[in-house]
């Protein structure tokens, strides 16, 4: 049987108040209402704050009407939470102190740095010092519309997802009364480019490449490997005749010494069949490699680390474009 005796000590104290009304003013008398709100600060301290509100002229408004109006104001302000969050609770504070510590451990390791950078740059920075309670739908929608003028649909969609998720959590933790990002409209974005190289262009590129670069592009185009999978390959991944083992991937978002990541489960390890043309070229490349260690990378940089994809594109492929036939 559950012991309920100690529960009350951990529950917030209900604060039902009526406030009070008084006359004020020298020439024109006004009804002034007084009440209190309880504000929670980032150090978890709670402070009682006095609120004063004008309820209208005394002439023509009986006191009981003024009291009713005051009660409506009190009920509206304290309907959802007993404790009002301090203005110190900005979206930056909530991201750093609540949302990121709670959610980051569950994100995929390889994409975690990219996700953090996206949220901090596109979501947090534009509203960094705005108190959570002052963030409204208009400001968020306006920012979203501006993003759509400059960025792709991917950026716009991610912003909409992340801002809603962060404010959903703020709502769940009673930092806001409602989520202003709940009904955001997705604006039209610039058209995305989906062009891919055609077979003739790949052949032209292969004709001007040699050695390592030729093999890398050949494997990418024929085996349909992801760049991260290709550049994570090691010599011992080629041990079995006629096939290639895919058991690691390079993440360009990770720190230099943690860029190579393994799949979450053994079931994610895959094997790729190698056509005869690639088998011959791969065997020749393995014989030419100076590093014969089993775990040496198949396509190493000059430091012995996996090649950086952007460097490979900018230094090895794009400069050759001017040599393509035609």
Poorly predicted ranges (pLDDT <50, ≥5 residues)?
1-14
Shape label: elongated
Derived from helix and strand composition plus strand pairing, the structural class reads: alpha+beta
Please count the beta strands (DSSP E, at least 2 residues each): 8
Portion in strands: 5-15%
Q: Determine the fraction of residues in helical runs and give it as a percent range.
A: 25-40%
Q: DSSP helix count? A: 10
- Strand-and-helix sequence, N→C? EEEHEHHHHHHHEEEEHH
Largest sheet: 4 strands, mixed
The radius of gyration over CA amounts to: 31 Å
Tally of distinct domains:
3
Task: Describe the protein in words.
Helices cover 38% and strands 13% of the residues. The chain has 326 residues and is an alpha+beta fold. The chain has 3 domains: 15-85, no CATH class; 91-172, DNA polymerase, domain 1; 199-323. Strand 1 (20-24) and strand 2 (30-40) form a beta hairpin. The longest helix is centred in the middle third of the chain and has 20 residues, at 153-172. The termini are far apart. The relative contact order is 0.08. The model is unreliable at 1-14 (pLDDT under 50).
């Amino acid at each position: 049987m559950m012991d309920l005796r100690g529960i009350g000590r951990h529950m917030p104290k209900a604060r039902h108040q009526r406030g009070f009304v008084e006359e004020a003013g020298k020439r024109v008398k006004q009804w002034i209402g007084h009440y209190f709100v309880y504000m929670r600060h980032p150090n978890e301290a709670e402070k009682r704050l006095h609120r004063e509100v004008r309820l209208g002229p005394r002439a023509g408004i009986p006191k009981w009407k003024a009291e009713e109006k005051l009660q409506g104001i009190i009920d509206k302000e304290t309907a959802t939470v007993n404790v009002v969050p301090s203005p110190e609770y900005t979206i930056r504070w909530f991201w750093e102190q609540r949302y990121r510590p709670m959610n980051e451990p569950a994100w995929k390791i390889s994409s975690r740095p990219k996700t953090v950078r996206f949220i901090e740059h596109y979501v947090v920075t534009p509203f960094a010092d705005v108190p959570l309670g002052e963030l409204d739908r208009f400001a968020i929608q306006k920012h979203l519309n501006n993003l759509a003028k400059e960025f792709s649909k991917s950026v716009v969609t991610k912003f909409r997802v992340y801002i809603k998720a962060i404010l959903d959590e703020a709502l769940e933790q009673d930092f806001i009364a409602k989520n202003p990002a709940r009904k955001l409209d997705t604006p039209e974005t610039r058209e995305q480019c989906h062009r891919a190289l055609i077979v003739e262009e790949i052949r032209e590129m292969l004709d001007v490449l040699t050695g390592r670069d030729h093999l890398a592009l050949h494997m990418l185009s024929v085996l349909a490997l992801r760049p991260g999978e290709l550049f994570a390959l090691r010599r011992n991944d080629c041990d079995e005749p006629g096939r290639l083992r895919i058991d690691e991937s390079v993440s360009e978002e990770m720190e230099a010494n943690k860029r190579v990541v393994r799949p979450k489960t053994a079931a994610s390890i895959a094997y790729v069949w190698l056509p005869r043309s690639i088998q011959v070229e791969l065997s020749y490349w393995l014989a030419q490699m100076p590093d014969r260690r089993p775990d040496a990378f198949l396509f190493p940089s000059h430091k012995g680390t996996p090649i950086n994809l952007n460097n490979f594109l900018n230094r090895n492929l794009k400069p050759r474009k001017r040599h393509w036939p035609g």
